[in-house]
Amino acid sequence: MKLYNRVREFRIGHGLSQKDLAQAIDVNLRTISQIESGRHINPSLNLALKMARLFNVPVEELFRLDDYAGKVDKY
């Protein structure tokens, strides 16, 4: 499954540069760039929670799984 994110959208909406966001959540600029471009596909829960708190949204507003999200496997 692929993880999609809206980090760039929220960052721009809050008037932050990538550098501003990186400093606010204590990561390096490269991490933010890679998350936004989809190269860093599995951010830690800690990192996702920091971003969600900064933007005042649930984690699910920032990150979502592909078409399999929300489906329940039947055994």
The H/E string reads EHHHHHE
CATH class: Mainly Alpha
Query: Residue-averaged pLDDT, rounded?
Result: 88
Q: Quickly count the domains.
A: 1
Radius of gyration: 13 Å
- Structural class determined from secondary elements: mainly alpha
CATH topology: 434 Repressor (Amino-terminal Domain)
Q: How many distinct beta strands?
A: 2
Protein name: Putative transcriptional regulator
InterPro entries: Cro/C1-type_HTH (IPR001387), Lambda_DNA-bd_dom_sf (IPR010982)
GO molecular function: DNA binding
Keywords: DNA-binding
Write the layout of secondary structure elements.
Layout: E1 3-5, H1 7-13, H2 18-25, H3 29-37, H4 45-55, H5 59-62, E2 63-65
Protein name: Putative transcriptional regulator
Domain HTH cro/C1-type: 7-62
Keywords: DNA-binding
Summarize the structure.
This protein is mainly α. The chain contains 5 helices and 2 strands; from the N terminus they run βαααααβ.
Question: How would you portray this structure in words?
Answer:
Residues 7-62 form the HTH cro/C1-type domain. Keywords: DNA-binding. GO terms for molecular function: DNA binding. The chain has a single domain (3-58), classed as lambda repressor-like DNA-binding domains (434 Repressor (Amino-terminal Domain)), CATH 1.10.260.40. It has 5 helices and 2 strands; from the N terminus they run E-H-H-H-H-H-E. The protein has helices spanning 7-13, 18-25, 29-37, 45-55, 59-62, and strands spanning 3-5, 63-65. Helix 2 (18-25) packs across helix 3 (29-37). The two termini are 19 Å apart.
